[in-house]
What does this fold into?
Amino acid sequence: MIKLQDVYKEYTIGDSLLEILQNINLEIKKGEFISIIGPSGSGKSTLMYMMGLLDIPTKGKVLMNDVDTSKLSDEKLSRLRNEKIGFVFQQFNLINKFTVLENILLPTLYNPHTLDYDPQIKAITLLKRFGLDHRTHSYPNKISGGEQQRAAIARALILEPEIIFADEPTGNLDTKTGETILSLLEDLNKKEKITIVIVTHEAHIAEKTKRSISIQDGKIIK
Ligand SMILES: Nc1ncnc2c1ncn2[C@@H]1O[C@H](COP(=O)(O)OP(=O)(O)O)[C@@H](O)[C@H]1O
Ligand SMILES: [Mg+2]
It folds into this structure.
């Protein structure tokens, strides 16, 4: 569903050219449970931003379901992202002045598509499924890290995405809580057939996925 062809990402700082990603060719197929692994600074997040249509390459193409996204306007691009892609981050990125329920519903406020379901009911269902019903009206800074990450995953799911990108989703959690987050993502892949891409620097997390892509100094090495 996502294909990167000869993708480069470069920044010019003063007179020097920083090559953050070089000659990236990869394909993520529908239904995959896959990890991108590499040391800190290797370009994983940058690569995730390209795949998730949050940023555009300096060279090369990103195809989503065979559509060349470099040809799309900013508006079309954000529509596509909104409709098809969910994101989960290491820092959870919930908004503290909104309740858990309000955070989960946030993506629906910017959503230009008509939904064939009631997002409020969907949010309540997700809260129950993730064992967060008692946190529905809590504020994010009043609940645990594991609960915040489960709320963030619920937010990523509210518009029923085809693919979820999770950037170091267990990076701020203890090992045991991290494992519950991983099994939750695995479950979404198995039961709902949602394509899951996990970005990590930890080998034991990458080992849990079905396929792993290694990146080093902005290049795919395996
Ligand atoms: N906007 C930017 N301008 C300049 N350099 C950047 C920018 N974003 C990232 N980098 C650099 O690109 C490299 C890869 O960053 P990143 O993709 O965040 O790596 P990772 O997620 O693997 O830790 C790092 O050396 C980082 O400093
Ligand atoms: Mg990163």
